[in-house]
Write a structure and sequence with these properties.
mainly alpha
Length: 107
């Protein structure tokens, strides 16, 4: 149902949060959810109570998509010569690991 799709799309923000990101004004995050079920095929609908597995899937795929875009992007030069440099994977993982270790010891 349309309501179920809206609920699924809303969970993408949780995947963004898993990466440490936040939605700032003008930051440009969006989620597109598409229903491929033909109209009038209600026998294939699922109960709202069965959505938890799908919620988890949306969160995990959003998280993974963000990580893939960070680690597999190439250095680019954009408009007005703005440069975005490819992230070094090992260095980024070390920074992240150190951050989470320090965060846990400060609790």
């Amino acid at each position: 149902s349309r309501w179920q799709l809206q609920q699924l799309a809303a969970r993408s923000a949780l995947g963004l949060g898993r990466t440490g990101g936040i939605s700032r004004t003008g930051s440009g995050e969006f989620c597109i959810i598409v229903n491929t079920n033909p109209i009038g095929r209600s026998e294939e609908n699922i109960s709202d109570w069965e959505l938890d597995t799908f919620f988890k899937a949306v969160i995990e795929t959003t998280h993974e998509s963000i990580l893939n875009s960070m680690f597999f992007a190439e250095t680019v030069i954009g408009r007005d010569d703005h440069v975005r440099v490819k992230r070094p994977i090992e260095e980024t993982l070390n920074i992240t690991k150190n951050y989470w270790c320090n965060l846990k010891t400060n609790e």
